[in-house]
FAD-binding domain-containing protein
Amino acid sequence: MAGYEMDDVTIVGGGPAGCFLGENLAKKGFEVTILEEHPEIGQPMCCAGILGTERLKEIGLNSEDWCLTKLRGGIFHSPSGDSVELTRDQIEAHVIDRAKFDRSLAEKAVRAGAKIKLRSRCKEISRHDAGVSLKVKTPGGIENLKSQIAVGADGTNSLVARNCGLLKNFSPKACAQAEIAGKIETHKANVYLGNDLSRSFFGWVVPSGEVYRVGIGDKKGNPLRKLIKLIERANLLPQNPGKKIVRFTTGLIPEPSGRKIYGDRVILVGDAAGHVKPLTGGGLYLGLSCTKIASKIATKALEDEPSEENLEEYENAVQEKFGQEFRLGNRARKMLEKMSDDDLSEFLELMTLPKIRELILEHAAFDRHSDLFKALIKEGPSLIEAVGARNLMKYVNWFTDI
Ligand SMILES: Cc1cc2nc3c(=O)[nH]c(=O)nc-3n(C[C@H](O)[C@H](O)[C@H](O)COP(=O)(O)OP(=O)(O)OC[C@H]3O[C@@H](n4cnc5c(N)ncnc54)[C@H](O)[C@@H]3O)c2cc1C
């Protein structure tokens, strides 16, 4: 057994959230160690890599730097086989090289003074009055680390969350994604809806430079079988797509905002905290934005006392900034989950109505879905004519019945 080391902060997980927090805290002068179980940052990668162009700048990052493809909107494919295109003239999002993105965040963390320990898997974490102890499996054997505070940046199935009693209900969406060689000159992502494909999520085909990313997620069932079905259904793929798979990965998307994210001497960030958009599961912008909040609160707590009471401010600040995003997004997701295939097809057809289309194109923001939900709620009465009173009541009931 190696000896003890004492840091201010140990971050478990060298993904985007862990590295971004590491950079921010190291810049403030804290001793930070980031533990990453894999031999390389950014691998294995399971992500469609879609990032809104505008919001990320708010946290000092520019998605243009890792861009593979630019998107102007999406095509939504209904179970009946119809499709609805919603695009704007301007670029809405970038499809990024996720591995490069993760590596650049790690490099920034190291430049700021954080240490990254690769091949270092946290096996156990315990908290006591003097600090936090972490048992870490490394190629050289078990190491015991100590710090003032521990951060769970270790993804959906967070060991830190489980060890610290912060993860009670675990019902993630299991996803599978393939990268298929081929290029389409399009600026649109494709979204596939239908209960035969996924009851609680959706499938996607996203042009990503020299490949397409084809993926699907669901709470139940075998994601690989669902992916094969999607590949068969998505006729925009090249011929014999199965023979052109260059990469296949699986991953989990957490239940959005369903966890306690702080405790005595511990906080969770990113997917470990459930900081993902409820409707699409996208967690890069939301996770990093909440991580920025975590950095501020952790700084204050480290300068005072990293007690549960002081760290509670993190949850309050996240709810203040994104509470409505989580609440409305969760309602919209649950509403979609209640729909039969006929309902889904009918719902997508509504998007072809000029009034609805206008509202979507005016208010839909890639990384902030609540703007559109609020506009739809506000405009509700004026939609009666276009949607029909009975239909509108049906959607209102689904949306409010949680
Ligand atoms: C199929 C799929 C598609 C997605 N597409 C998009 C998208 O298009 N846009 C978007 O914004 N988001 C997308 N997401 C979500 C996005 O990938 C996540 O929100 C993001 O990766 C979260 O970053 P993170 O740092 O919190 O966690 P992760 O990226 O999961 O990183 C956690 C890190 O912790 C390490 N780790 C775990 N346990 C331990 C341990 N015990 N000890 C040491 N290290 C450990 C892991 O190896 C990993 O490197 C997608 C997710 C999936 C599954």
